From TrEMBL:
Pfam families: LacI, Peripla_BP_3. PROSITE patterns: HTH_LACI_2. SMART domains: HTH_LACI. This is Transcriptional regulator, LacI family. GO terms for molecular function: DNA-binding transcription factor activity; transcription cis-regulatory region binding. Signal peptide: none annotated.
Amino acid sequence: MDKAGIREVAKAAGVSISTVSRAFTRPELVSERTRRKVLETADKLDFNISRSATSLKSGQTYRVALLMNEEITSWFNTEVFAGINAVMHEAGYDISLFQHIDTAENRRDFFTNLPVRRNVDAVFVASFAIEPQEVEQLKRIHVPIIGINTPSAAGFDASISIDDEAGMFTAAQHLISLGHKNLIYVCSEAIDSINSSIDARGQGFVRACKMAEATHQFTWQVLAVPRGKTFADSALTALLALDEFPDAICCQTDMMAIPLVLKLDRYGHRTPRDFSIIGFDDSPYADTVNLTTMRQDPFAMGRLAAHKAMKLIAGESVETPHEVVRAQLVLRGTDSVYGGNQS
């Protein structure tokens, strides 16, 4: 059966053709009740509206969606966006950002409305997993779903991720090998409503410590603080409140490690003299403070994800749809053999 046109949708919904058009392109001009009726009718009739003359000719919208669980201003998301844009912009694509897809309400709004609008050619999902029912909703629009650093490749047509768990396992092993006796992993608390890739880093720390307990004498613990803009200050407060200050600290991100390096010094805890500290990301300023860290490259991941998307949009197969890369240990100056610098 042929897809319905705008006239059929207008007739079935009992509204004018211009109202159908505004429901898709200028929703602020249509009442919520009318818009919902139009979208539900369009969904039943398998109708989607084109954005431009180019769309009419090609059947493409020349728009992609990027879902992220935090703000675009975070280092990782900015780099991912830049990597995607470096490829998609040259091909004439716009990128629609959907930030803070970390609450049940935001997730429901996105995964319910997008299949009805059908106004993107691909969906990128950064740093979190999508549920089976959400995959089902996205599959209805018949566009590729590409994951970037997601906890699992399940439900995605293609993906590129780092192994967060293995990366922090390496970081913890490095500190253990230096002979440290009191290790702390500092992280932000997990959010129940979203399966975030960053939470796997804690699993790597725990696995490394449990493996080493048979051959090394040391203590370790996980110190979780509330997630949010003040997480670094919360981590500082929590560390200073410990009965015994650790001689080694693994940080979930550089953006937690860098403030700790600077602020702990004011309280008489200087790295590497008094303790070792290692971050994760190799983000801006990690080199400036000489931070030992685990390196990842979200710009490169964004570019690769975009290349995969372009192939899938064109109906071509991707030679290696799902890829996982390992974070690299970057040795700088915030770690030393237990006991600090003896020079």
